[in-house]
Amino acid sequence: MDLKAALVCLAMSTGPALADFAADEFPPYERCALCHGLFGVSHTAKFPNLAGQDPDYLTTQVHGFLTGHRTNDGGQMMAIVTELKPEEIPVAVEWFATQDAPAPAPATDDGTGRAAYAEAGCGNCHDQAAELSGVPFLTAQHAGYLTKQMQDFQSGARRPGPLGVDHPALLPQGDATLAAIAQYLAAEPRE
């Protein structure tokens, strides 16, 4: 038997065994890992880094997608969270929240982003020193993701979370300023 025939036989003999694997035999965070990375560091700015994130924030966001309070481009998150059983949500949240925070991006801010972030008062809630439960850490996050979220808050595409913060009133105007804030935050280490 040649190698090609042997591989075909092997694939055919293992196929049904693999097909019998139930999805619930895998840890629930593996579903999330397809986009967010197994250890919570995604490879593209379309998906946020979840590693080292505030666990209350992660829980709130999952429930927001489940109820439809939060949406995203194309509804991917709304579809995937329905695959999680209620008892699996805390398991996935704990996994990502306890991972090491992602490494910061290389610094590109010329000081504009830092100044705009401080002037808008974003750190009052989002800096780790604020210690507000349920508020996301923004440092070491993808700059592209942060920019889009700020734009979505301003346009109304993203609604306020459970704390009811009026982000559009707080955020500075202008995509260039929002991008500068995002670049500043992406390059800041999460303590």
Automatic annotation (TrEMBL):
<keyword id="KW-0732">Signal</keyword>
<feature type="domain" description="Cytochrome c">
    <location>
        <begin position="108"/>
        <end position="189"/>
    </location>
</feature>
<keyword id="KW-0574">Periplasm</keyword>
<feature type="binding site" description="axial binding residue">
    <location>
        <position position="126"/>
    </location>
    <ligand>
        <name>heme c 2</name>
    </ligand>
</feature>
<dbReference type="InterPro" id="IPR050597">
    <property type="entry name" value="Cytochrome_c_Oxidase_Subunit"/>
</dbReference>
<dbReference type="GO" id="GO:0042597">
    <property type="term" value="C:periplasmic space"/>
</dbReference>
<keyword id="KW-0249">Electron transport</keyword>
<keyword id="KW-0479">Metal-binding</keyword>
<keyword id="KW-0349">Heme</keyword>
<dbReference type="InterPro" id="IPR009056">
    <property type="entry name" value="Cyt_c-like_dom"/>
</dbReference>
<feature type="binding site" description="covalent">
    <location>
        <position position="125"/>
    </location>
    <ligand>
        <name>heme c 2</name>
    </ligand>
</feature>
<feature type="signal peptide">
    <location>
        <begin position="1"/>
        <end position="19"/>
    </location>
</feature>
<feature type="domain" description="Cytochrome c">
    <location>
        <begin position="17"/>
        <end position="100"/>
    </location>
</feature>
<protein>
    <recommendedName>
        <fullName>Cytochrome c domain-containing protein</fullName>
    </recommendedName>
</protein>
<dbReference type="GO" id="GO:0020037">
    <property type="term" value="F:heme binding"/>
</dbReference>
<dbReference type="GO" id="GO:0009055">
    <property type="term" value="F:electron transfer activity"/>
</dbReference>
<feature type="binding site" description="covalent">
    <location>
        <position position="122"/>
    </location>
    <ligand>
        <name>heme c 2</name>
    </ligand>
</feature>
<keyword id="KW-0813">Transport</keyword>
<dbReference type="GO" id="GO:0005506">
    <property type="term" value="F:iron ion binding"/>
</dbReference>
<feature type="binding site" description="axial binding residue">
    <location>
        <position position="36"/>
    </location>
    <ligand>
        <name>heme c 1</name>
    </ligand>
</feature>
<dbReference type="InterPro" id="IPR024167">
    <property type="entry name" value="Cytochrome_c4-like"/>
</dbReference>
<keyword id="KW-0408">Iron</keyword>
<feature type="binding site" description="axial binding residue">
    <location>
        <position position="77"/>
    </location>
    <ligand>
        <name>heme c 1</name>
    </ligand>
</feature>
<dbReference type="InterPro" id="IPR036909">
    <property type="entry name" value="Cyt_c-like_dom_sf"/>
</dbReference>
<feature type="binding site" description="covalent">
    <location>
        <position position="35"/>
    </location>
    <ligand>
        <name>heme c 1</name>
    </ligand>
</feature>
<feature type="binding site" description="covalent">
    <location>
        <position position="32"/>
    </location>
    <ligand>
        <name>heme c 1</name>
    </ligand>
</feature>
